Amino acid sequence: MRLIFVTVLGVFVLVACSRDDDHRHPQLNTGKQLYVHHCASCHQDAGDGAFVQGVPPLKDTSMTYRQMTDHIRGHGRPDDSLMPEFSTMSQKEAEAIAVYIRNILASG
Predict the structure, then answer these.
(1) Cα-flanking dihedrals φ and ψ of residue 26, to 5°?
(2) What total of structural domains would you count in the chain?
């Protein structure tokens, strides 16, 4: 019974965090707006993550801006990564999210 619960919970988390790799949203301009749209459903508004679901916190990340932008866009991630791959996200969007994470979430 416990195995079924854990499996169902895992599937729910993956489906809840998955998003189409659609970046046609001209109304979203700031790093915060992009973070809320693409990241907060899994990593939470404050960047705390969700330990039980295996979603790491972002607010204390030691990644550089470059590492974050590459990670967001799916470069250099392990094949078994649970994070959606935003391969069509522009470099500009990924950078705006990375700046928001480092400057706002990490300092909060």
Answers:
(1) -65, -20
(2) 1
